[in-house]
Amino acid sequence: MRAFHRLRRDESGAAMVEAAVVMPVLFLLFFGVFEFSKLFYDRHLVETAVRDTARYLARTSDPAAAAEQARLLAVYGTVDGNGARRVSWWNPPALTVTAGSCSGFCAVVTTVANPIDSVTRERTYRGTADVRTIEVSAELAYPGLGTLRLLGLDTLRFRVAHAERVIGL
Fold first, then answer.
1. In a domain? residue 1
2. What total number of domains does the chain contain?
């Protein structure tokens, strides 16, 4: 009994036991914060790429003909494909330019009626009777750094889109 009481009051290994219990939780917390920070940063870069692509296509006379340069602009930030990738894991396929709905990395060109208001005698938007817009969107699956799988989460998917009024050349 005396040895049991002495062992019960002994605190020489208490710090090591506490560290063994707390460290896995702290590591998961640290790497989880790092993972989600990387996710938000990469999403911001993809949003910037989609916005730049929509602006580029809105200023071309034929968006379908400029689709490959627009894809290179999204990936590299330049229309000639030189430079480093914006997001290392994102390599979108060819940009599809359509007049209807689409999925993946695509651009939808729509025409909106711009009638003259009977009271004010002005159009809703400045310009002609029809206003063209282009919306570029991208659907992605974030591959992650591995922490998401440790937390039991599936691959995160997100969609970004940006619309611009077509100015054309």
1. no
2. 1
**Residue-number span of the structural domain to which 21 is assigned:** 10-165
No. of H helices and E strands in the chain? 4, 4
Q: Tell me which residue has tokens 């159009």.
A: 123
Where residue 148 falls (left for φ over 0; alpha for ψ -120 to 50; beta otherwise) is: alpha
pTM for the full predicted model: 0.79
Q: Would you say residue 83 lies in a domain?
A: yes
Distances (CA, A) of 165 to 70, 79, 94, 95: 16, 20, 22, 18
Structure tokens at 65: 């003909």
pLDDT tens string 5-59: 776 777 777 788 888 899 988 988 888 888 889 999 999 999 999 999 999 999 9
Tokens matching residue 60 = 């071309």
Asked if 158 contacts 50 with a C-beta cutoff of 8 angstroms, the reply is: no
